[in-house]
Amino acid sequence: MYTSAKQMGLKLCRHCKLSMSEEQTHCQRCHMRVHTRAPNSLQKCWAFVIAATVGLFPANLMPITVLSTRGAPQYETIMSGVISLIKDDMVGIAIVVFVASIVVPVMKLVGLIVIMLSLQFKMNLDNRQRIVIYRIIDIIGKWSMLDLFVLSIMIAVFERNNLVGVEAGPGATAFGAVVLLTLFAAKSFDTRIIWDKQLEQR
Amino acid sequence: MKSSELSKLSICPSCDLLVDTHAHCRAGKVLICPRCKHTLARGNRARFSSQFALALTCLIMVSLANTYPLLSFTFLGIPSSANILRGTVLLLEHGYYLVGFAVVIASFIAPILLFSLICYTSLSLSKGWKAPGLATALHFQDDLIHWSMIEVYIVSFLVALVKLVEYADIDLGYGLWCICITLLLSTRLIQRIEPAEYWERYVHIR
Predict the structure, then answer these.
(1) Number of folded domains in chain B?
(2) Where are the beta strands (DSSP E) in A16-58?
């Protein structure tokens, strides 16, 4: 059967990928502190996930963009922006925006919560399934920045325009915070603990 | 365990599996972790000099992308153009610091810094010259890969473009082509970066 390095008293430097014995505190190649497992990885990940979940509410309920046509401000939340895109017959773009700014953050949080709950309550989930969920989360993670990039481009385009003005709304800050928190959450989760739980059960 | 025995074993960074990598990975092949399917090593090693060339091209292209406008258009007689930095400057001016910084880091600072660092480390390693701050540069280089989001920026640009088409005629600027070339080259560059290889070489020239 498979043997983890931890069982053999070995560990790996996460920075330069050098193998060493457990007694060494620092990596001899890149001088960084080396841990067998990232310390308190589950706690950190939970903290980021909970903070991001709380942030989802203001991010989705408060206006993310303020569109002003002839001086009358029009507040758009993420969802109302998507709906107005559909009304303007831009279904393709609406789907891209919807997936990037609503589906991706929610999926990341749900995915991480599923992985962590299944580990902590020893639920029947295959390790392979857990790592696949994690890798999907890792890949799609950065795509939730899309809406913020679109916002910055639109602001720049309508900068010197008296008729149409685009500005960020308070929801943008909340949404930015959610995106950053989910990125940190995924990064703080040490995937190696997925297989540790299996070792304990034997 | 002795260091000579240690060098024959690899540890999967994703699942901590001990893998016997006695035989080296042959050219054109990849070594995949049997337990979690993580790619452990690639057979074709990138030469540092070619990494340097790629990174330098990326750096030049991304600098050009920031000097030329991405698009320019005329809306009701008012000409307007947009480049990468202008939007973030406006976000920061209006007090949206978190959003502004996130956007400027992911679309401007991280790519430029990443390409500069790869230039610096690859040149130093290929010449066998121990550059000052090389270890720090290598550490930052590995972390910055996750924060460079050029591909997301290009898709965002397309979304913005489709939204703008209904307002006016749009002329695409040179900046857009520059950033597209940067994306093509940087995908290849980042794909070929193997932190372990850089560190192995680093130890040799020390």
Answers:
(1) 2
(2) 19-21
